[in-house]
Write a structure and sequence with these properties.
about 475 residues; alpha/beta; Aldehyde Dehydrogenase, Chain A, domain 1; Aldehyde Dehydrogenase, Chain A, domain 2; six-stranded mixed sheet; 16 helices; binds NADP nicotinamide-adenine-dinucleotide phosphate
């Protein structure tokens, strides 16, 4: 039975209420988790606040970093056990879950190593003055995370905040919180002082809402849907605190006639089937130059037909979707596209002997999709790819930028000038040229523009997001 982790202790909810933990590959419950409410959030925020004047605050940056590096080692030692937990909780194929655990460990290693390398500045100013710029923790940071990559998200969101010396309160998704809870035990074993990390599980409208509106938090980082992101930004605005929002995407893969088509086709499939398309940076729009449209689509069709969805242990391209609602949502997109007369170019399979009751959807390729159809504009968050032809470079750029989102773009061409011209004109946070990194890159600053959010996580930049900059001006006399 999973419990809240508050002030270094496993505790029940004040209400005594629990929620089921569902295995998406069977639809059956295999555990319970605590249904946290405003009182539980209040306890967690109180524990985090107290940690800021306790042993946690006394550690040097180097000592904080060492704890995170120890966490990285412990996570790697338990990779298989954690991957099994992650795949059971989220339905991920085992090889993807194993990779996610390695990435979570890598975040701990990267930010552990970086903790004492975030330096301030000394600024030349008027004579007789000494000016330094120091970086200090915000205080209590609130983290609200989605269900698609719980282990990786913990690494990406919580770990840099700890590296900077903040005290954390995390509300993971009720659909996927087992790996973040397992990381609490690991953090304790690695020597993290009580209260530095607190996790309250529960529903978004209840525990998440209470956390985002709590009067004693200093900063919020949220990853999830644009709709809830707007609520979070309003809550932050009410208290004039900073928020970082990592929201969805509808990222284009732009394939020109001079591209290495074999390589492009392989990446295109992976970028939409990874995590069954439930990846904010999924390459969900395939923009193909008309002169090679039929040829390239033929190559993608072949690969799509071979793709399949199965249980985590079957380790196919896709696992099940996270829950019944997500399956219904994705099937709704597929049905409406079919009803609109958009051709299904290819469909993968669902393995015949998957457990009944799981939330499986076969990878599906549609095309040509009209540019204003919802399949070309809205985030599906499932293994559904929309192919759209374009004519010229200018047309490709306009089309790529034509959604409300702006997270990633992939450019496939051998023309170096074109690569740079297009990269400069993409309205988004990351551009990949002749490669595509859905979800990847611990070292690479990541985030969006437009409805994809604002602020940056990952890489060194995340550390700058998670701290206050203070300028100290001293008159030292003549
Ligand atoms: P979601 O419904 O927005 O939920 C995200 C988190 O917010 C969950 O922990 C959820 O709790 C919580 N929440 C829900 N309502 C809330 C409220 N009123 N106040 C405070 N918290 C609330 O998103 P999701 O369905 O889990 O995830 C899918 C979305 O996330 C997609 O749009 C995807 O693109 C986006 N995403 C973006 C990135 C990125 O880095 N840009 C990464 C991953 C996912 P419960 O789920 O427990 O109710
Ligand atoms: Mg949810």
């Amino acid at each position: 039975m999973a419990q809240h982790f508050i002030n270094g202790q496993w505790v029940r909810s004040t209400s005594g209420q629990t929620l089921p933990v569902i295995d998406p590959s069977t639809g059956e419950s295999f555990d319970t988790l605590e249904r946290g409410n405003a009182q539980d959030i209040d306890k967690a925020v109180g524990a985090a606040r107290a940690a800021l004047s306790g042993p946690w605050a006394k550690l040097t940056a180097t000592e904080r970093g060492r704890i995170l590096v120890r966490m990285s080692q412990l996570i790697l030692e338990r990779q298989e056990e954690l991957a099994l937990l992650e795949s059971r909780d989220t339905g991920k194929p085992m090889s993807q879950a194993r990779n996610d655990i390695v990435v979570a460990a890598r975040y701990c290693e990267f930010y552990g190593g970086a903790a004492d390398k975030v330096h301030g500045q000394q600024i030349p100013y008027m004579n007789d003055f000494h000016v330094v710029v120091i970086r200090e923790p915000y205080g209590v940071t609130a983290h609200i995370l989605p269900w698609n990559y719980p282990a990786q998200m913990f690494g990406r969101s919580v770990v840099p905040s700890l590296a900077m010396g903040n005290a954390v309160v995390l509300k993971p998704s009720e659909d996927a919180c087992l790996s973040p809870l397992a990381f609490c035990d690991i953090a304790r074993e690695a020597g993290l002082p009580d209260g530095a990390l607190n996790v309250v599980t529960g529903l978004g409208e209840e525990a998440g809402d209470a956390l985002s509106k709590h009067r004693d938090i200093d900063f919020i980082t949220f990853t999830g849907s644009p709709e809830v992101g707007t609520l979070i930004q309003k809550a932050a605005a009410e208290r004039t605190i900073k928020c970082v929002l990592e929201l969805g995407g509808k990222s284009p893969q732009i394939v020109f006639e001079d591209a290495d088509l074999e390589r492009a086709a392989t990446f295109v499939i992976k970028a939409i089937t990874q995590n069954a398309g439930q990846t904010c940076s999924a390459g969900s729009r395939l923009l193909v130059q008309r002169s090679i449209y039929d040829r390239f689509i033929g190559m993608v069709v072949e690969r799509f037909k071979q793709s399949s969805a199965g249980s985590p242990a079957m380790d196919r391209d896709c696992g099940p979707l996270i829950n019944a609602g997500q399956k219904q949502r994705v099937e709704g997109f597929i049905r409406r596209a079919v009803d609109s007369g958009i051709p299904v170019l290819a469909q993968g399979s669902v393995v015949a002997d998957v457990p009944t009751g799981g939330y499986y959807v076969a990878p599906t390729l549609f095309g040509p999709v009209p540019r204003d159809h919802q399949l070309a504009c809205d985030e599906v968050f499932g293994p559904v790819l929309a192919a759209i032809p374009f004519d010229t470079e200018a047309d490709a750029i306009a089309l790529a930028n034509a959604t409300d989102f702006g997270l990633l773009a992939g450019i496939w061409t051998r023309d170096g000038g074109r690569q740079t011209r297009i990269a400069k004109q993409m309205h988004c946070g990351q551009v990949y040229i002749n490669c595509y990194g859905a979800g990847g890159g611990v070292e690479l600053p990541f985030g969006g523009v437009k409805r994809s959010g604002h602020g940056r996580e990952k890489g060194f930049l995340a550390l700058e997001e998670f701290c206050n900059v203070k300028t100290v001006v001293q008159y030292h006399g003549e």
